[in-house]
Amino acid sequence: MRALLLQSMAGGRLQLRSLYSEDLENKPDCVSVEGELLSQERNDALLENIVSRLSLEPGVISIGWRIIEQEFG
Question: How far apart are CA 28 and CA 23, in angstroms?
Fold first, then answer.
């Protein structure tokens, strides 16, 4: 999953700020992966494309994205 995320960002319009994964306590065969991406401008379509691509992977149970902070300048 990490490699696919990095590959999806290869166009250079997004930067990876952090990537975190942990095993889920109540589901021993599941891992939660969270990434934080930075962009110079808002691009919902690009994020939707990345999320759509990752959702096709076997074993993906849930996936989504959200804006956590928006700066204007």
Answer: 7
